[in-house]
Amino acid sequence: MTDLSRRKMLAGTAAGAVAMGAAAAAKASSFGNPDNPPEGRINSTPEANAEPGPQNAATKAIMPDFDNPPPTDIAGMPIPWQSFNLAHKRIQNGGWAREVTTKAFPVSTDIAGVNMRLGPGGVRELHWHQQAEWAIMVSGDCRITTIDTQGRAEVSDVTKGDIWYFPPGLPHSLQGLGEHGAEFVLAFDNGSAGEFNTLMVSDWLAHTPPDIIAQNFGLPVEKFKEIPTEQLWIYQGAKAGPLAADQAYAASPAGRPDHPFIFRMSQMVPTMSSKFGEVKIVDSHNFPISKTVAAALVTVKPGCLREMHWHPDADEWQYFIQGQGKMTVFNTGPEAQTVDFFPGDVGYVKKNLGHYVKNTGKDDLVFVEIFKSDHFSEVTLSQWLANVPRQLVKEHLRCDDATLDAIHKLKERRDIVGAIDAR
Fold first, then answer.
1. 3-state secondary structure of 73
2. Which pTM value belongs to this model?
């Protein structure tokens, strides 16, 4: 090959490469496909995207948007998803519990979650935590007991949709009621906390000299020969009696606490409601005892959207109760990741990161948003752009006047927006 022909071949190859690069760049900058080099299955071929190796079909089905992410995703951020369904259960004769903490969910630094079941008469033994405990009932009925630092005792019953909050250090117990017991989800305001590192009465007494226990109660040491030498944790107790009787027996001379430790979220009027869904917000404004945890119970109708937004004051921990959905989280970098949710799954979004949650199923999507804060706060994309000078919005979105007019009308927060065919 002559030098002339070699130069022609190299020039042709370079020109082809430039053309291919230009085509890729043009495709990458097209609508819904922002990155270069392009990402997503749409930019691949069937053979290149094949998976001839071993597959775990059940695991792949859990997260379809991991297997086929939208081309707007760009990898790199910690996975904002975990699930109680994949957490190991500790089962005892009175019930069970499983937890999601930073051990399995490193991104969740502010909140740890526990899913617990107490059968009829099942008791979560007398205990306390170094963290605050927030909880929502998801099934059945439960009796709670506690006492505050002024010696004022409380005994109450809660049902599906109700919540409770125990500040750090306040002792309490939980018991399943009726014929079906109770199931609930606990949230602790520390991502490394959990149900397996609590301070329990049985453990404390088992590790205290018997003469000290006797002296503490002013009774002969023989009276304490039968105390458990191992923790009770969750045990099968006798079924609870009438609430009034327990309240009368536990009544303190100091009276009852100023603030109830429970909130009947099941009975509250939604904070925001439309034909597309509703939001119930509970924080220290309407539940004064809840000083470190704020929450929202969100219902999104099929095809509708928890609108694009972010939370400037706290990370968001999510627990999915019903239905199915998807969320994309956006971070600097840029980084963007789409994840799917089913009942029992947990999501996490660091404060200030943009996100949405879409109902992708046929039933209502119901989930809880929890924040390590005394108040709920958020900023929505549509409300922001509706309150920005028109020319700035036009330059950023490059859209027509009709679109600008429609955006300008979105000055009020909506929280839930309709499906395209629902408008």
1. coil
2. 0.90
